[in-house]
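Support reply, case 0932

Customer input (verbatim):
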Amino acid sequence: MLDYGSGNLRSAERALTRVGADVTVTGDPRAALDADGLVVPGVGAFAACMEGLRAVDGPRVIGRRLAGGRPVLGVCVGMQILFERGVEHGQDAEGCGEWPGVVEPLRAPVLPHMGWNTVQAPERSVLFDGLADQRFYFVHSYGVRNFPLGAEGAPSPLAAPLVTWAEHGDRFVAGVENGPLSATQFHPEKSGDAGAQLLTNWLRTL
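Our regenerated output:
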């Protein structure tokens, strides 16, 4: 698990340990590169998370892992920073750019979106296997409302990412599965048995 000064590391560490993972929390780029799987958590503002991530060479570590087909799981803001840009409080910050898209304020009558919500996962999802109609725990005011890579488009030799959606006011990305790169907007570690099953499903891909 990448420690870059952001995120509820201990609860995520405990959740992964409970489902059988051997977890090391580290800010060392070499250890993060060498791990079987890398979890990138995140809580707080997009720009601040990117600043902390750069301080531990996080964008390069993530990019090198993905280039070698080595799994990465982003959680909450750890998912958001994988996109091109984040716009929060009038501040436009550059993300890791692994996916096109902008993290922006949700359009909803009540923010933050805090609490349990269902998701719409695609049929071929590995992360959400066995989790139809389950609820997951969200805490956020920002999200990705348009994900062009997940839409029907021109034929490509590359498989399109599998995108899971949720609704709060309008629709936003709740999860993405894209080869070795996976991510969730919600917190699996706070999502009870459903979150534990999702983490188990991810561990099985390592």
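We compared this against your earlier run and they match. Two observations from our side: DSSP finds six helices and eleven strands in the chain. The mean pLDDT is 94. Please reopen the case if you see a mismatch on your end.
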